[in-house]
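Sulfotransferase domain-containing protein: structure tokens wanted.
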Amino acid sequence: MKKYLLTSIGRTATLSLATYLDSLDGVQSFHEKEKSDVPILFLSQLSEYSLFVTNYFTQRNASIENKENSVYIEVNPYFRFLSPSLLEPLDWQKIFLIRHPKTYLESVFQRKLYTENDVLLNQIPNNTDPAIKNWPHWTRFQKLCWYYMKVHDHILSSNTKFFKFEEITTDSTSLKQLLQALSIDVTSVTNFTLPKVNKAADNAIKNKLREAVKGNFKSSKKLVWSDLSKEELATYENLCKPIAEKIGYVL
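Answer:
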């Protein structure tokens, strides 16, 4: 059985993709377990927790070894920082989904990342990162810019194969290429269009209800580029644009 970890920075149609992949003959796909997988986002990026990661995928191997499928795909953005070298001894391969910085920032800005209500164990700069000096003073937008740069720099430095969100969601040829990279026989596939599976609206309603119960009536605001300060725009120019151009986006 061929085994793949399909991961991303988030906001890249992973749920739609997992649903689509699981519908294909000979393919089994598993999507993240949301909050129960949250610690993975933190632990999988630290070398001292390599045994934790190895045990996770060893257990996954044991649970799927008797499945009557030729391809198994774990679609899990929480493993975005996982080194491919940890997967190779277990016969897993890692593939990443990327997204244009502008649309990513617009999408993630309406979520809880780097807010007071954020329950995730987020990535922050270490002591050797120049960003650590500015971190206490940066706005949330600037922190998101740094995070975008950090994730995509990891992709390039680890030589991880990647595909663009914009292409696989709109172009059947690009989706077919992704399937081929996942060892899926495309000659038996008749549909190369991802289903529209989006829980954003449902989650927004649930979050508002939770906030109302807690007495917090603040709602997520949309990102308005014209409202950003010169410093925020400079951060976008300095952090997001160079790495986005390196991974193939025309800005």
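Strands lie at 2-8, 27-31, 71-75, 92-98, 161-164. The CA atoms of residues 140 and 154 lie 21 Å apart.

Cheers.
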